[in-house]
Amino acid sequence: SPLAAWLRGLPKAELHLHIEGTLEPEMVFALADKHRVPLAYASVDALRRAYDFDDLQSFLDLYYAGADVLRDEVDFHAMTAAYLRRAAADGVVHVEIFFDPQTHTARGIDIGTVIGGIHRALVEGERELGISHRLILCFLRHLSEAEAEATLDAALPYRTLIAGVGLDSSERGHPPQKFARVFARAASLGFKRVAHAGEEGPAAYIRDAIDVLDVCRIDHGVRCDEDPALVAQLAATRMPLTVCPLSNTKLKVYAQMQQHNIGRLLRAGLCVTVNSDDPAYFGGYVVDNYLAIADALSLSRAELAQLARQSFEASWLDDAVRQQWI
Ligand code: ES4
Ligand code: ZN
Which Gene3D superfamilies has this protein been placed in (predicted)? Predict the structure, then answer.
């Protein structure tokens, strides 16, 4: 469509992307075959049909199972390279990607294998596709803070390759306070901080991520609108929200895209951005997310261009580079 072509031509940064969530069913089967890992599904189509979720946890169960086929450095490289090709086709010029080391170290895979494969693909993507990058190490919030501390320790030999730390996985019952100490240590080591908050969890978790974890962005954050004073604060401080529209409808945060609040938050002056989260599972990459909200919320091209500009405002690019894109 003309709008899709226009959106692909708009320079964009993607700031909320779990690299393990880019593992397409075809690659799950290819890697299962390579490593002789048995799968619970008979075919690529059967696996894709299972991507029908009730909530965050029903998705996470399949997402962690899918990641089990990632075994060596070549696998992490192939997954990341495939994502970067799709991002380039969508007009993404800068990526800040999450990885979940604990999903892999718990299976006996060295964190160096994980970081090495991802980083090699990012460096190639910069040279071959012109996509700049930052890497964000996420702690799994359903695990303990002690396990997060051990993960931070294991990542220190690779600290120059990691721009920041994040917090993901099951939100409810795992408030930001649970990770106050490890985030403070990450800050003292020079890592930027982000956290998933206000996806399924309450608006209070957004406040606490800001006040207790000292984050510079909120991942999702859509439940902020249950607290009007918080919405006003987010607007006044230009605290970015990395919103993922197709994720929110697939995981039933909203029953329908027409109910999504990203248009209202944009008009209220918030630095909201559009991202794909786990595109292999949620039915689309970043332009599909822009198209879904453009259609459901009747956003103008000026509003869509503003969302793309805000993705650079919210990014960790150096100011001189940021200015080239906005
Ligand atoms: C995630 Cl959508 C979402 N929420 C929380 N944690 C995650 N990990 C991967 N995708
Ligand atoms: Zn996410």
Answer: Metal-dependent hydrolases
ipTM of the complex, rounded to two decimals? 0.97
Sign (positive or negative) of CA dihedral 251, 256, 257, 263: negative
* Domains identified in the chain, total number: 1
Residue of 14, 15, 17, 60 with the most ligand 1 atoms within 8 Å of its CB, for mutation = 60
At 288, phi and psi to the nearest 5?
-60, -35
User: For residues 55 and 60, what is the distance between their CA atoms, to the nearest angstrom?
Assistant: 9
Which SS3 state, helix, strand or coil, does residue 216 take? coil
State pLDDT tens for residues 212-238: 999 999 999 999 999 999 999 999 999
Encoded tokens for 39: 């799968």
To the question of pTM greater than 0.95 for the whole model, the response is yes
State the DSSP H helix or E strand holding residue 302, giving kind and residue range, or none if neither: helix 301-313
Give the active site residue among 14, 96, 199, 200. Answer: 199
Q: Is 24 in the pocket of ligand 1 (CB under 6 A)?
A: no
What phi and psi values does residue 134 have, to the nearest 5 degrees?
A: -135, 150
Gap between the Cα atoms of 20 and 76, Å rounded: 9
Cα-to-centroid distance, 60 and ligand 1 (Å): 7
Report the alpha-carbon distance of residue 17 to residue 136 in Å, rounded: 10
CA distance linking residue 324 with residue 326, whole number of Å: 6
pLDDT tens-digit map of 245-280: 999 999 999 999 999 999 999 999 999 999 999 999
Helices (H), 15-165: 25-35, 44-49, 56-67, 73-89, 101-105, 111-129, 145-155
The CATH number for 26's domain is 3.20.20.140
**Enclosing domain of residue 280:** 2-325
Burial-class residue 93 by CB neighbours within 10 Å (0-12, 13-18, 19+). buried
